[in-house]
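The methods section describes the discrete structure representation at length, but only in general terms. An entry of this sort, consisting of the sequence and the corresponding backbone structure tokens, reads as follows.
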Amino acid sequence: MKQRCFWVTDSKLYQEYHDTEWAEPVYEDAVLFEFLLLETFQAGLNWLTILNKRDNFRKAFDDFDYQKIANYSEKKYRELLQNEGIIRNRLKIQSAITNAQLFIEIQKEFGSFADFIWSYVDGKPIVNCFHQPKEVPATTEISDKISKDLKKRGFKFVGSTVMYAFMQAVGMVNDHTSTCFKFYDSCS
């Protein structure tokens, strides 16, 4: 039986996410936006809740197409508020629209969102060597900087904890612990 990171439950969905996506480097803007949107909705909730609703989010938010989301009408916003398949939080839904608009602004400024976000780690993942769950941080100086920068630009629901979870999800940091079969031992 595969040993996984401490946070993975017996949910097949969670296990598949851990095994195939979590901590895998993502450099495509479309996928980065998907994770940004999902992580902002996850704020204050369990990630498994978001994973269970991921397909619903995908349908509700036009396959995470940030160009479309940035131009959502008031009618679409009201439809999302009525969609029982997603997290129906007014502020989070509004932030998805605002964040999509700001995401496009960053693309214009930096050429891509990937270039912007990956610059915080010099374009390559930080591989950590954690052995115990208590060693894995909820925030770091880098997530603090990203959060502060995004907030200054007007992004919402991008606190340092959310941004560190985003960094883990898109492989900017690899926090697989030493007991996990995905652990990359660069510590020796």
Notes: The radius of gyration is 17 Å. The longest strand covers residues 126-127. The chain has a mean pLDDT of 95.
